[in-house]
Please model this.
Amino acid sequence: MSPDALVRLVAGRLLQYPDERLYADLDLLHEAVDEPALRAFIAHARVQHPLDLAAHYTDVFDTRNRRCLYLTWWSDGDTRNRGLSLVRVKQVYREHGLEFASEELPDFLPVLLEFAAREEAAGTALLEEHRAGLELLRLAVTDHGTPYARVLEAVCGTLPGPSPKTRAEAKSLARSGPPRETVGLEPFGPGADLPWPTVPAAPERTPA
Model:
């Protein structure tokens, strides 16, 4: 697994609701990645009371304050088009042998990051499709002044090219981004042995 894939996998864990599983796995996550921004957030989480970090998480990632972890929300809002975008994301998962069966929506950033770690080429293309929303989320969380901004900075750093510095630059990505096509992209390689995956594993195939 490449360094970028590990960043995505660990960041996806850190961007989930901080429950007992997260605190039990902080040491493992710290050892798995050497990205300074992620290690800085892990150090922050270690000294926070779990209830305090959970309350902070709920405050930060709030749709009403335009800090939403569901990437199609940024492009489609709560419209009929969003349903089509969600189907599109599930289609990409299916093309790579994954039948999405989580209680979360398929565009939930931690889910997408795990997919992008396990299937790096296809996952990068999918993140690029939604990069405008991802960068707008990063800018909004940075403006909020939360340590979670470091996690999003690390995620955006795994994508080609520099991150936009303003909202106007980020919004322009929606008009100039790559076409929505990833059919034919092959899996990058095996995943890392990290705990509690979100994206279901591909079903085993029995010999004919």
Summary: Residues 80-95 form the longest helix (16 residues). Confidence is low (pLDDT under 50) at residues 175-208.
